[in-house]
Amino acid sequence: METNAAWSPAAAWDWMEEAARSADAAVRGTNSWVPPVAEELVLTARARALSQWYPFTSHNYLRFVDGPTFWMPGALDDGGELAGSISFDTGGPGGCPVFRVWSGLLLRKPDPVLVLATENAAEAVEALVALLPSHGAESRP
Above 70 in pLDDT, residue 38? Predict the structure, then answer.
């Protein structure tokens, strides 16, 4: 890919899959609060309607923007962050992985609202897909 060429959503997803695979490998077999489920979540999200947006992870949240943002090749402006995300950690019963679906923008007021907590990545993705159309692609304040 050309250095100045803008990333397509497909290129951003390819990069996200590789990053998730690497992140999982780094925590697999360790005693970490971060479970090795990032690749599962990314692959599940990419196979659904979320693939139309640009994915990124931050603070163990899978988040989305509506266009290339400053760290992506070819970005001219920051993409608008979508008002929803999925977090993952080992906070489930017995320390099992749990996915949490959030409505709203992280680290901004008003605080995001927990919509669903589940051990199933597909359920989390479907809940986020259902949530985002009602909010649309909101830009960051």
Answer: yes
Q: What is the four-CA torsion angle of 71, 107, 109, 122, rounded to 10 degrees?
A: 90
pTM attached to this predicted model: 0.82
How far apart are the C-alpha atoms of 17 and 38, rounded to whole Å?
A: 8
E strands of the chain, at which residues?
A: 54-58, 61-65, 84-89, 98-103, 113-118
- Alpha-carbon distance of 15 to 3, in angstroms, equals 15
How many angstroms separate the CA atoms of 131 and 136, rounded? 9
In sequence order, what DSSP letters do the residues of 54-89 get, joined into one string?
EEEEETTEEEEESS--TTSTT-SSPPPBPSEEEEEE
Residues 38/57, Cβ–Cβ less than 8 Å: yes
